Amino acid sequence: MSKPEINEDYLLLLIDNKGIIGTDTIDIVRHFENENNKLLELCGTDGTDNIDQIVSFVRTELQPKLPNKTFKYCKDLDKAYQSVHVNVEIGIKTFYEKRDLIYTNQKLASNEEKEFDLESAFRDLKSEIKERVELWFKVFDIEFAYNKAKAIPNVLAYSHRISGWSSPEYKITDNLKQEIKTNFGYGSVSYFFLLFTFKNIQITPLSEWIDYRYSNFSEVIRYTRSFTSRIPVVDKRGRLRYYKTRIENEYWNYAIEFTQNAANLSLTDEDEFIEKYIISECEKMVNGLQTIYTNSEFDLIDENQFDIESKDTNRYRLDIKGFELISFKTEKIIGALDFIGKIIEYNKIIPTDKYVTRIKELNKQFIPKVHIAVAEEKEELHQAKKELADFLIGHNKLADKDKFYKNEQIRLKEKFKATYENEYVEFTTIFKNSLDQLAKHNHKVKLHTENIQILNEFIEKYNNFMN
After folding, report:
1. Which segments of 250-351 are extended strands (E)?
2. pTM of the complete model
3. Burial status of residue 10 (CB atoms within 10 A of its CB: 0-12, 13-18, 19 or more)
């Protein structure tokens, strides 16, 4: 017997058990077991055309029990366009249309004297019908479970696979509120966040800024913990373009567990809660920034891994050199200035001036290195432009010769080959190599131009904040 799965066989509940936060489950009851057995019988593995019989069963046995309704249900939490439309008549119409298409394709194949596997086509159609109707059963069953969970007075949250935006907020203590923020079924913009608000101040995972190679300020400040696995997609230079998002139903186990542990800690030892989720995060960030400033190799969390605060969290060694290293350090150290406003907010809970001071002092130590890097990149750009100009002297002569040959091809037509056969073959090889070299020279100029732009943007950020 297979292991029960969350949001397939049961819902996981977060409950307030007289001041202690605990968990419970609700079974997703199968209300259509008999109907499903009959469906399996009708849509068996044989390839006969019994679509009329299947339709009769759907219309007489299922239609009275399955009213037309659109369910915000995600088959896959991280895929786009997720919802289920239950409409028996539309379904029946589709079944007949697909059956007619099978016979049409059989006739076309016969006319063209091609083979056509009629039995295989009907097996596929009946498998599709079975999958569609079983999905109808699933969405009704889980909807019943949702309603049952909502009716329990002490339920704070429950697992779900509902598409669209959801952000229910619950008060844990007088000082702590939790918000489980989900946006399932929207592809790369899907998310699964938990946000704690302590004494009306959002708690932010500052350590993520230094634990991951690719972090985004506007993303990190949206949550206390993300239950989304991020797969970075980078350009040829290793710069982040976007994330592919992965969210699995099983992540609800981690979300509920994390919420339960944090909430109970706030209930039993508020000072320890502050230490773990505020002070420790500030310490990790400023210490991590110092490490980034000092070192050239870094142990970072694997972006492809779903981080569940495990001791076995996978890390990898990032070893980078040259501009890539100064760019990484600049992004992290100067980029950390954005978080100072958040850290100052924490002053209402604990003194945080020392963290602000350390970030500012580190930036003052680091900014001369950025100016040196800009000067070096400008020198590299100057040299790249000079090399390009020198190269273009010879390349432009080849380009003029290429135009000459093209004009000759138009003028001589079929006589061109006999007139220039040997020299033109040799020229095309030379010109192709020259075009390849031109592309490399242009890429080098573009590369250093972009490098200067990147660093200058961070210098501007530094000046705006520090001056």
Report:
1. 297-301, 315-319
2. 0.83
3. middle
